[in-house]
Write a structure and sequence with these properties.
Layout (H helix, E strand, L loop, with lengths): L18 E8 L3 E11 L11 E12 L3 E2 L2 E2 L2 H19 L5 E6 L5 E10 L7 H10 L9 E13 L2 E4 L9 E12 H13 L3 E7 H9 L2 H6 L1 E6 L4 E7 L2 E8 L3 H12 L3 H11 L12 E4 L11 E4 H26 L1 H4 L3 E5 L8 H9 L2 E4 L5 E2 L11 H12 L20 H11 L1
Length: 437
């Protein structure tokens, strides 16, 4: 039910006001914390949905520990890794954090679209009617063991006429709404919440990783016409579909760039660190003409330092990496076809995430997905260190955009507080109604 929502206490940034926001990107291979100042920006041609510009004042970055495929596997290691990274960002910004926005990849992310309608009896549509129809979606929500992360109204209908963005003041007999609901397993979210409580941090909001990646890398026209954003992470690959300016679909599969590293390590009998180096420096998923002649030095596991390194043609590395990339892209294509999203996303895919920077990936994606493909990098964030300007930090950049767009989401009315101290969507409903209507 929507009352099991996990997001809490996030107030949309107010137009014309400067505010501070802290985000924590907990990945399977890296953890990143950013403290940024959101300052009002004039309306421009580019990135029209953004009311503020983000300027980074604190940045912390380190390897992940105790997390696998977005799921907490060792609470002590995860706590220590998060403390280290948050401490770096706090020292750089000169302040102490109490709450953060956190991304969610774990808990078998999934999305569904629900529809509901209420009778108007020929009266004008008022705020209360919109609230009633959104509340009616509750009756058709997801299973109780899953929690709502986002509930995004993607379109209103009046007497069967669809495509209405704001029905207030219009007259009709029946008001309907379609809501895209993104959910995840409750227990995976609770473990994430528990780790952050041990770090003395409150969760201000949970943001689905595919939603954040899309917010950071897509331009307005793409989101309007239909586009899918694929985020190749360390141990998970997520996909989001945007259409008519709204996210309408999100999904995640538990295969990512680290699986390529493990494939290389196993098949070449090298250490994981060496496999990562080979993948980064020499890896490609597209065979080249000189690959059979170009030799790469490898150091087998257990070899002593005085032994001469072995050599393999670069083509061997490509033959190891390509099947895994094809597996990921085929799985995404099949899932999107099964849900009808290949038609909704139009003719365009955007690739982002750390593993998206592999040589030849856009060409392979074009062949498998049969769509136009481009690489996406985070846009519109100032003050980032050089290390954080790549596609690997798209989720983090998207979470800085999220407070500017979260007012569009539906929230539950005030009710009984949860025992864990989070109010779900409760705290946001008043803000949503006040700021939207």
């Amino acid at each position: 039910m929507m009352t099991d929502a996990m997001t809490s206490r996030l107030r949309p940034v107010q137009p014309g006001k400067t505010t501070l926001v802290a985000v924590l990107d907990i990945g399977s291979t890296k953890i990143c914390c950013v403290i940024a100042r959101l300052s009002p920006r004039p309306e421009g041609r580019a990135l029209k949905g953004r009311t503020h510009q983000a300027e980074v004042i604190g940045f912390g970055y380190g390897p992940a520990a105790g997390v696998k495929s977005g799921v907490v596997t060792d609470i002590e290691k995860a706590e220590q890794a998060i403390r280290n990274v948050v401490g770096m960002a706090e020292r750089a910004a000169g302040l102490t954090l109490e709450s953060v926005l956190v991304n969610v990849t774990a808990g078998r992310l999934g999305s569904e679209t629900f529809s509901a309608a209420v009778s108007l009896d020929g009266q004008e549509v008022e705020k209360a009617d919109i609230f009633r129809v959104l509340k009616a979606v509750n009756a058709r929500s997801v299973r109780p063991e899953r929690s709502i992360i986002h509930a995004l109204p993607i379109g209103y209908a009046l007497d069967g006429q669809k495509g209405i963005r704001d029905p207030r003041g219009m007259v009709g007999e029946k008001l309907g709404v379609d809501v895209a609901v993104v959910s995840a397993e409750t227990l995976a979210m609770r473990n994430l919440e528990l780790v952050l409580h041990r770090c003395h941090l409150q969760i201000e909001a949970l943001v689905a990783t595919p939603y954040a990646s899309g917010l950071a890398t897509l331009v307005d026209d793409e989101a309007q016409l239909g586009v899918a954003c694929i985020d190749f992470g360390g141990a998970t690959t997520t996909v989001s579909v945007f259409n008519d300016g709204h996210m309408v679909y999100a999904d995640a599969i538990a295969i990512g760039g680290h699986h390529l590293t493990l494939d290389i390590a196993r098949q070449l009998s090298v250490s994981v660190a060496d496999a990562e180096r080979l993948k980064t420096l020499h890896g490609s998923v597209l065979p080249g003409q000189a690959d059979e002649r170009e030799m790469i030095a490898i150091q087998p596991v257990g070899a002593s330092h005085d032994e001469a390194p072995g050599q393999i043609p670069r083509a061997v590395l490509t033959r190891i990496m390509r099947p895994r990339i094809e597996e990921i892209l085929t799985a995404i294509r099949d899932r999107m076809q099964a849900t009808g999203m290949m038609d909704v996303c139009g003719r365009r895919f955007v690739l982002t995430g750390g593993a998206s920077e592999m040589t030849g990936l856009p060409e392979v994606a074009r062949r498998i997905l049969a769509r136009n493909v481009r690489n996406g990098r985070p846009m519109g964030i100032a003050g980032l260190p050089e290390i954080a300007k790549g596609a690997a930090f798209a989720t983090m950049a998207g979470m800085l955009v999220y407070p500017q767009v979260c007012a569009q989401e539906y929230a539950e009315p005030r009710g009984v507080r949860k025992l864990t101290g989070t109010d779900g969507y409760i705290a946001r409903v008043g803000n949503w109604l006040r700021s939207s209507f």
